[in-house]
């Protein structure tokens, strides 16, 4: 049985279908929300041999005419030059304003294909079919699309909500272990800010039921997005827990050294420590976050070659200190979060160094 989880944004709400072995029903699901038309199936060269044919076949059976576009795996494909190539291939294949984009892959493909959909003929519908834990619990939901500028990651993008998200938990079977574990950075983040019981479950179970776990996380993210689609009310900002320092680590380490979820793991450790100092989180609760990260083999201490100074320099490039402090998401109690406005450079330094 597939679960249907609504994302109740005010205009054009959509569903996330979560289930086992549902890739072969993609065409059927998509034809319920989009008219059968031409579509571009965008994926990467790791995923294509595993899953593209199943999706193509089901789309064709539902009356879609499919053009499959395969990009190289990895972050470098999220460059504007690549986007132009993809759009050119779509135009050559005869796609136009009545066409749709189907994103089959991890976070990179979701961001890239979503962005293409947001600009192609001034915006066409798209469907997300996420195949990594990160994409299933986080990046496929919420309509943030983005590509990289030469000056930094995800600096260019648009809000463009999908028409449907199809999450087949079985696609995770082929995901390399490191990429699988990476996703638990975001899952543990969700637990810390919204679902203390999930953290307890993660600590208690060595092999949680994946379908249930993914659905639980989809519900958490869907709710936050529905209440604050454009990140205007501060609610969506809570999803940045662990990300201020996490992004600084990604920058300081150079892309490629840490996977996103691994950098976020390091950011979560620091954010947990800052929460103890600034929001009265108990030491015991902070330890729970760290223990859960370790259980998924995520890094919890910074390597010696990344100094506090490099990290703070990277951080202050994308965060403004106002009268000595930054806005920083803290957790006063597991399952709750708020934005503190008085986290100082000294607090950051202390958390990074401890
Ligand atoms: P993210 O982890 O942010 O979702 P990517 O889109 O870069 O990031 O995906 C991580 C890597 O895993 C990529 O090399 C991608 O090709 C590969 N990949 C994605 N999904 C699967 C899958 N289901 N099975 C095997 N490899 C996959
Ligand atoms: Zn993240």
Number of strands: 11
* CATH domain topology of the largest domain: Dehydroquinate synthase-like, alpha domain
**Beta strand %:** 15-25%
Determine Rg (CA atoms, Å): 20 Å
Task: Give me the secondary-structure topology.
Elements: E1 3-7, E2 14-19, H1 26-33, E3 38-44, H2 48-61, E4 65-71, H3 80-92, E5 100-105, H4 107-119, E6 126-130, H5 133-139, E7 144-149, E8 152-159, E9 164-168, H6 177-194, H7 196-204, H8 210-227, H9 243-253, H10 260-279, H11 283-295, H12 308-318, E10 325-333, E11 336-344, H13 345-353
Parallel strand pairs: 2-9, 3-4, 3-5, 5-6, 6-9
Antiparallel strand pairs: 1-2, 7-8, 10-11
Bound molecules: adenosine-5'-diphosphate and zinc ion.
Residues 138, 186, 243, 260, 264 line the site of zinc ion.
């Amino acid at each position: 049985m597939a679960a249907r989880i609504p994302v109740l944004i005010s205009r054009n709400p959509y569903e996330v279908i979560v289930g086992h072995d549902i890739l072969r029903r993609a065409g059927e699901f998509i034809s319920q929300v989009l008219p059968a038309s031409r579509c571009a199936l965008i994926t990467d060269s790791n995923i294509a041999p595993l899953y593209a044919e199943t999706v193509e076949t089901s789309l064709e059976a539902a009356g879609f005419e499919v053009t499959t576009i395969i990009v190289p795996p990895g972050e470098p494909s999220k460059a504007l030059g690549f986007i132009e190539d993809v759009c050119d291939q779509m135009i050559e294949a005869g796609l136009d304003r009545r066409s749709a984009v189907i994103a089959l892959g991890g976070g990179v493909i979701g961001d890239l294909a979503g962005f293409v959909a947001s600009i192609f003929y001034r915006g066409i519908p798209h469907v997300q079919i996420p195949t990594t834990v990160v994409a299933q619990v986080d990046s496929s939901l919420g309509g943030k699309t983005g590509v990289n500028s030469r000056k930094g990651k995800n600096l260019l993008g648009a809000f463009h909500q999908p028409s449907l998200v199809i999450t087949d938990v079985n696609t995770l079977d082929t995901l390399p272990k490191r990429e699988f574990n990476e996703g638990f950075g975001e899952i543990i983040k969700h637990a810390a800010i919204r679902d203390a019981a999930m953290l307890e479950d993660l600590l208690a179970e060595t092999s949680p039921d994946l379908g249930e776990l993914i659905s639980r996380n989809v519900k958490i993210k869907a709710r936050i997005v529905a209440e604050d689609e454009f990140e205007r009310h501060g609610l969506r900002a809570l999803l940045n827990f662990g990300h201020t320092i996490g992004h600084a680590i990604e920058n300081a380490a150079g892309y490629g050294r840490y996977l996103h979820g691994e950098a976020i793991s390091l950011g979560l450790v620091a954010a947990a420590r800052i929460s103890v100092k600034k929001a009265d989180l108990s030491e015991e609760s902070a330890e729970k976050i760290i223990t859960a990260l370790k259980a998924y083999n995520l890094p919890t201490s910074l390597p010696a070659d990344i100094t506090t100074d490099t990290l703070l320099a990277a951080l202050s490039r994308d965060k403004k200190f106002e009268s000595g402090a930054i806005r920083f998401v803290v957790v006063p109690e597991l399952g709750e979060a708020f934005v503190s406005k008085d986290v100082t450079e000294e607090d950051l330094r202390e958390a990074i160094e401890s």
